[in-house]
Design brief:
8 helices; monodehydroascorbate reductase (NADH) activity; monodehydroascorbate reductase (NADH); EC 1.6.5.4; FAD
């Protein structure tokens, strides 16, 4: 669930969450809780008056949760802050949804609420008041600064500052080729994950469409269910946006050792239904067919910007364009997380990053800038990671991290067992590093190398006898 874009819908059915609001009916929760609780928002159909909030966050994912936590840390929660989200839950950590959350019961899965994946906040932001509406929409062009329209009853939620943290929506296969058949799954939130788990409990043959983060993580989880699993994607190898062909081959071999089959360079013609209307097979454009009683689509995501295009925000750069303090072109309106196209200072370009690390950091930076005199611009170092096969009984648990920019030539060191590293070098500078199965100390070292971009001797690096030796060579280059 991670990507960098250098180049865009908020769905109906949003809920209105206003912590400690005095004017709405209250749903009390234990005062001892120290995190946003996991509970379905109560439907409040009683009329409520127009609301005024100093700060409004639109979105319910990691960026929204960390923005809320930052407000609390600055003493700006009680009565002055609310979150507008389409989900029935308070913000939670989403990365687990395609990792531990999907493991079968006997593998001790990371399920809500026990897995502790909520965005931890101070007690002031425990959900006390839960308002639910069927349709929320933004006020038309020129009026956004005055509030958010609750269209079905004509009420307004007025605010002083608005933070857009709407994230992304999953890219879907067209309905005409079976993209909405029962048994076809997309994963962006906990409801999606719960639906997929229900299918995995009954499935025998699973097809995963897409060879990126979603595809790799879901396929690894399906192995834990002991299911016949096939990954289908049009590229030449797994995670083509980041992995080199050589590195991808190592991972593909590991998946194949776990029984996963690959159909590379393959394109979907349609998803076919059985006599009961449930998905039964995936038909490829070469005429072949793969049987499936569960299909998971992981073909990318699109930033949820459509509600904001008509109110003067710039979305021509692949997201909502912001500056180094996450300010949009409209005063009082900010954008953070996956949806924001921001200046990637270290590489001097505009980028949009789909990753939890950026969601957290951008939200924190934005709120700090909003509430203080901070003028320091966001200086982000791209960071991606994945964890697979981490369930009990797995012969090998996999965790890799990448920092920097995958630009230039590559040097690969190690044999994958026990570890492997890939170094990207451009104009003699070390630009990026991917490390698999590293130690804590090594994982702490690689961001320092990627940020400082030392000049390295490529030949010397190529002759390194081990990953440890290669990292020592890079570290020594940094000291020169």
């Amino acid at each position: 669930m991670a990507t960098v874009s250098n180049s865009l819908s908020l769905k109906h059915g949003l809920s209105l969450w206003c912590p400690q609001s005095a004017s709405l009916n209250r749903a009390h929760t234990p005062s001892s809780s120290s995190s946003i609780g996991f509970r379905t928002f109560q439907r409040c159909y009683a009329a409520f008056a127009n609301e005024n909030r100093e700060f409004v966050i639109v979105g319910g994912g990691n960026a929204a949760g960390y923005a809320a936590r930052s407000f609390v840390e600055h003493g700006m929660a009680d009565g002055r802050l609310c979150i507008v989200t389409k989900e029935a839950y308070a913000p939670y950590e989403r990365p687990a949804l395609t990792k531990g959350y999907l493991f079968p019961t006997d593998k001790k899965p990371a399920r809500l609420p026990e897995f502790g994946g909520f965005v931890k906040v101070a007690e002031e932001l425990v959900v006390k008041v839960l308002g639910f509406t069927h349709v929320l929409d933004l006020v038309g062009k020129g009026k956004l600064q005055s509030g958010i329209m609750r269209r079905n009853r004509g009420k307004l939620l007025k605010y002083g500052s608005l933070i857009i943290a709407t994230g992304c929506t999953a890219s879907r296969l067209p309905e005409k080729i079976g993209g909405n058949l029962p048994g076809v799954h997309y994963i962006r939130d906990v409801a999606d994950a719960n639906s997929l788990i229900s299918s995995l409990e009954k499935a025998q043959k699973v097809v995963v469409v897409g060879g990126g983060y979603i595809g790799m993580e879901v396929a690894a989880a399906a192995v834990g269910w002991k299911l016949d699993t096939t990954i289908i994607f049009p590229e030449n190898h797994l995670l083509q946006r980041l992995f080199t062909p050589s590195l991808a081959r190592r991972y593909e071999e590991l998946y194949q050792e776990n029984g996963v089959k690959f159909l590379k360079g393959a394109y979907i013609e349609k998803l076919e239904a059985g006599s009961d209307g449930h998905v039964a097979a995936v038909k490829l454009k070469d005429g072949s067919t793969v049987e499936a009683d569960a299909v998971v689509i992981g073909i990318g995501a699109k930033p949820a910007v459509s509600p904001f295009e008509r109110i003067g925000l710039n979305t021509t750069v692949g997201g909502i364009q912001v500056d180094g303090l996450f300010r949009t072109g409209v005063p009082g309106i900010f954008a953070v997380g996956d949806v924001a196209a921001f200046p990637l200072k270290i590489y001097n370009r505009i980028a949009r990053v789909e990753h939890v690390d950026h969601a957290r950091r951008s939200a924190q930076h934005c709120v700090k800038a909003l509430l203080s005199a901070q003028t320091q611009l966001y200086d982000y170092l791209p960071h991606f990671y994945s964890r697979v096969f981490e369930y009990e009984g797995s012969p090998r648990k996999i965790w890799w991290q990448f920092f920097g920019d995958n630009a230039g030539e590559t040097v690969e060191i190690g044999n994958f067992d026990p570890k492997i590293a890939t170094f990207w070098i451009e104009s003699g500078k070390l630009k990026g590093i991917l490390l698999e199965s590293g130690s804590n100390e090594e994982f702490q070292l690689i961001p320092k190398l990627a940020r400082n971009q030392p000049l390295v001797d490529k030949a010397k690096l190529q002759n390194a006898s081990s990953v440890e030796d290669a990292l020592e060579i890079a570290w020594t280059s940094l000291q020169v």
